[in-house]
Write a structure and sequence with these properties.
Elements: E1 4-9, E2 17-23, E3 30-35, E4 38-43, E5 49-53, E6 63-68, E7 79-83, E8 88-92, E9 107-111, E10 119-124, E11 132-136, E12 142-146, H1 150-160
Antiparallel strand pairs: 1-2, 3-4, 4-5, 5-6, 7-8, 8-9, 9-10, 11-12
Length: 171
């Protein structure tokens, strides 16, 4: 499966079968997250974000809905995360491409308001951390912790001056 993504039926783990295979860039590293009826696939090898419609996977059909190559300094990605509450997709890492001297990709944020076609919200190669994590903190509700400083994310938002930029609550 180094040249694409396999979708596997695992209801009976002893009899797992590949339902569908969709081609992609050659890479041993892929990250996959789901949201709504879509799977978002990224790779260290580049190729952007492949968006697959899983609405008919039970009948054996997976459809490539889009390939998103906008945002950041490379289409390669190491870390992928989705905040299902806010509907934002985060990608980071991935050093292949024109990031300057092998510098890893910074954090790039997309809106999933239309899950079939993620829209770029902010992309900043200056932010160099590549881990995004979410967690429940306190009884006041959910707060989101990014492994980048709050000020770096705010600075990226200000530089791009984008209305949809997500608000990152204080920790």
């Amino acid at each position: 499966l180094s040249n694409g993504t396999g979708f596997v039926e695992v209801t009976d783990p002893g009899n797992a079968t590949i339902v569908d295979f969709e081609g992609g860039v050659v890479s041993l590293w892929r990250g996959i997250k789901t949201y709504s009826t879509y799977a978002y696939v990224v790779s260290e090898g580049g190729g952007g974000i492949q968006v697959f419609n899983l609405a008919n996977i039970d009948s054996g059909t997976v459809t490539l809905a889009a390939t998103i190559t906008t945002g950041g300094c490379t289409t390669a990605t190491h870390t992928l995360a989705i905040d299902e509450t806010s509907g934002f997709l985060y990608r980071a890492g991935g050093s292949s491409g024109p990031c300057g001297g092998g510098t890893p990709q910074g954090i790039v944020i997309y809106s999933l308001a239309n899950p079939a076609s993620p829209a770029l919200v902010v992309g900043d190669p200056v932010v160099e951390q590549s881990q995004v994590s979410f967690g429940h903190i306190s009884q006041e509700g959910v707060k989101y912790n990014l492994a980048v400083s709050q000020e770096d994310v705010r600075a990226a938002n200000r530089r791009l001056d984008h209305e949809e930029a997500p608000t990152i609550p204080e920790a």
